[in-house]
Amino acid sequence: MERAAVFDVDGTLVDTNHLHVVTWWEAFRQAGHRVPTHAIHRAVGLPSTDLVAHLLGEDRDTGQDAALSAAHTALYGQYFDRLPALPGAGDLLRELAGNGWTVVLATSAGGAELGALRRAIGADDAITATASADDVDSGKPSPEPVRHALELAGVPAERAVFVGDTVWDMRAGSRAGVRCVGLLCGGVAGADLRDAGAQTLYDDPAALLADLAGSPLA
After folding, report:
1. Domains (ranges, CATH) in the chain?
2. What does the alpha-carbon distance between residue 78 and residue 188 come to, in Å, rounded to a whole number?
3. More confident residue, 33 or 109
4. pTM of the predicted model as reported, rounded to 2 decimal places
């Protein structure tokens, strides 16, 4: 039977979370908002509009949302040609594909950003499909991105594992009914990931690869 390994990308396979924090901080600063970096870090992983709403509140001037998102995109885009993959990321995906897993990415990134992330990982030969922000109406923590990834893989939830690094990932995977593995390389505390639904924790993709036989991806 087919099995699906679904992966978040930012902070899970590519070391970008703190780049997002800095560039969102600058986008907010340019628009006259003082948002602490620790609050931004905890919101990373949400789609842009949801991240802005989470940090500025529902009573904000929503007319600024598009400009804030565009500013972040422009600032973050300066790093597209040098995004660093996390240790073992590409090797992990290739090992899973070689072991018969269908590898699917589920990410809030889309367009040129997603292309830059895939180039950083360098394992397109192992990736069957991508459920991006362009493909769904609601991002994480909605289960929709994970469910769409399962549809692309043609695999039921009970035959899938979702790997991510934020509480939004763990909540999305849990709501979709899949087993969740949390990685600590995104900077989120292990206790928070467990509370959100992570069944097991690893430091980074390399650590998961090293213990693959003892993990939910065995």
Report:
1. 3-16+83-214 (3.40.50.1000), 17-78 (1.10.150)
2. 25
3. 33
4. 0.96
